[in-house]
Amino acid sequence: NAGVTQTPKFRVLKTGQSMTLLCAQDMNHEYMYWYRQDPGMGLRLIHYSVGEGTTAKGEVPDGYNVSRLKKQNFLLGLESAAPSQTSVYFCASSYSKAEAFFGQGTRLTVV
Amino acid sequence: GQQLNQSPQSMFIQEGEDVSMNCTSSSIFNTWLWYKQDPGEGPVLLIALYKAGELTSNGRLTAQFGITRKDSFLNISASIPSDVGIYFCAGQGAQKLVFGQGTRLTINP
Fold first, then answer.
1. How many CB atoms lie within 10 A of CB A67?
2. Which chain B residue lies closest to A31 (C-alpha atoms)?
3. Model pLDDT for residues A78-111, shown as the tens digit of each residue
4. Which residues of B36-73 are buried (b: 16+ CB within 10 A; e: fewer)?
5. Any idea what DSSP says for residue A7?
6. What is the C-alpha to C-alpha distance for residues A64 and A46, in angstroms, rounded to an integer?
7. From A43, A97, A101, residue closest to B95, measured CB to CB
8. Contact A34, A23 (CB under 8 A)
9. B71: nearest Cα among B43, B11, B29
10. Which of B14, B50, B72, B81 is most buried (most C-beta within 10 Å)?
11. Are A33 and B40 inside 8 Å of each other by CB?
């Protein structure tokens, strides 16, 4: 049972480049989340989804877009990367509104 | 938006000591969760609390869901070296799961 899998694990982007982070879960969870983690800031919610085909904004959605075309996948897109988006990104999923399980994270550096 | 205030931000203790940390919020939550994060890893769930006033233990860990539904605490008894890490509280509201800033625990042997 793989749980929550994030790809890639590491990435370096140049300012202005675009990329997509993939989150896949094999637990048939309805809820999925994308967070970013910065030193001293804890985990801040970027976007989330309560089911296939639905997405909603979290605390810090600007500069990001998401899609949930399939229940098991939640994609996070950066259309034009900025140095302020250098962070560690975590995906999580849950059956209900709690007990979220996390992936291993994606460390993104924008230069 | 919903804000969680977690304290302390960091703790430096001796092995064997007890640890206490807490979270407060201006909003009411339906569920409180406590997670631990080791370096280079994602957070791992320690304890989940579902009812106001609920007191739950998991080994040396004890957590409580405050009566007002706006706060929670986590206690660790008789700390050991593997307790080192960052501890996060999280509150579940209508749909979103939001996190505190974390408490970094360092243990001196």
1. 15
2. B95
3. 999 999 999 999 999 998 766 889 999 999 999 9
4. bbeeeebbebbbbbeebebebeeeebbbbbbeebbbbb
5. E
6. 8
7. A97
8. yes
9. B29
10. B72
11. no
